[in-house]
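In the design runs reported in the main text, the only information available to the sequence generator was the tokenized backbone. The following block is the verbatim input for one such run; it is reproduced so that readers can re-run the procedure and compare outputs position by position.
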């Protein structure tokens, strides 16, 4: 498939809601997998895309959480458990989805954690890198066959403007454990840069197929994402960010738009904010860093791919 060289502009703005940007789009017959479907942007994304007719595979840390979220909305939802920091669990989730034998039209990697105050590690890796990046890396790779089977499968990586505030060097491959130095927000930034680099590298790997991959920044939205930074800091951040923050309905717009809009047919390897192409950091544009991250991730997750 020929890819458009440029991502098109849309008429939508930071005030547009997920309902508005998907108005008139018929997703009947399509299957869209969303991680983190029980809270914040993931829940709103699930609600709106289900209302547009898609069958949602709603992933949460536990099946009970996914079921609880599914019960709150209208539409068809298949609840699955996907604890992203447990790579055996991620593999099992992908296997469960694979046996459904459904082409996956959209895979929205939305779940995430932010700024764990103390260093947490598993598999010798810092927890935000593991959860936000490596868990999704395993999930996407194990389901890529199903994405490619769809007429125009789309991977959407929910990154962040926070990818700009990462550790020195972008991805510090010599300190993925965080043991040498741990700075909560910079490790969040590193994990969000990893989401963006992964999308860019995946886009290159998908050249010549019908499938695409793009990354997004949803805006600044008050959600439980800030649960780790303490109520005082959260309240302060809420006040300071008030002029630029938006509602959850608006925050879910860009990922819904990039997953579903016919205007983005064949568009791949881009980064969107406010439903429009946005500028990514210099690190995010590095092909070398993206290729290295992919290779290192393959090594780290070798037993689960
Ligand atoms: N809100 C913002 O201002 C903002 C800005 C830029 C980017 N983002 C990105 O947007 C995405 C959604 O965030 P949000 O604001 O909607 O936050 P949220 O309400 O806290 O939702 C995060 C979701 O991720 C899930 N999750 C966390 N750890 C997980 C794990 N180990 N395994 C599986 N699922 C896990 C959470 O499940 P539990 O509820 O069970 O913990 C929840 O469903 C994140 O990737 C975030 O980085 C948000």
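Verbatim output:
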């Amino acid at each position: 498939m020929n890819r458009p060289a440029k991502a098109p502009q849309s008429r939508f703005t930071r005030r547009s809601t997920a309902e508005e940007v998907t108005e008139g789009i018929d997703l009947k017959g399509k299957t869209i997998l969303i991680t983190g479907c029980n809270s914040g942007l993931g829940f709103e994304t699930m609600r709106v895309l289900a209302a547009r007719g898609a069958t949602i595979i709603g992933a949460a840390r536990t099946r009970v959480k996914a079921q609880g979220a599914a019960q709150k909305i209208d539409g068809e939802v298949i609840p699955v458990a996907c604890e992203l920091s447990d790579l055996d669990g991620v593999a099992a989730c992908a296997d469960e989805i694979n046996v459904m034998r459904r082409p996956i039209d959209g895979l929205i990697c939305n779940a995430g954690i932010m700024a764990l105050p103390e260093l947490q590690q598993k598999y010798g890796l810092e927890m935000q890198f593991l959860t936000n990046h490596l868990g999704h890396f395993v999930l996407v790779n194990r389901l890529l066959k199903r994405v490619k089977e769809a007429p125009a499968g789309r991977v959407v990586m929910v990154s962040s403007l926070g990818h700009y505030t990462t550790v020195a060097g972008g991805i510090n491959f010599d300190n993925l454990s965080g043991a040498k130095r741990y700075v909560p927000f910079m490790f969040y930034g590193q994990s969000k840069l990893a989401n963006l680099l992964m999308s860019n590298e995946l886009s290159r790997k998908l050249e010549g197929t019908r499938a695409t991959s793009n990354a997004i920044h949803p805006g600044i939205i008050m959600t439980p994402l800030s649960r780790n930074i303490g109520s005082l800091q959260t309240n302060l951040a809420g006040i300071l960010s008030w002029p630029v923050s938006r509602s959850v309905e608006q925050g879910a717009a860009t990922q819904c738009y990039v997953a579903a809009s016919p205007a983005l047919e064949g568009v791949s390897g881009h980064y969107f904010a406010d439903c429009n192409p946005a500028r990514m950091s210099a690190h995010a544009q590095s092909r070398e860093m993206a290729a290295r991250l992919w290779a290192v991730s393959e090594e780290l997750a070798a037993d689960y791919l």
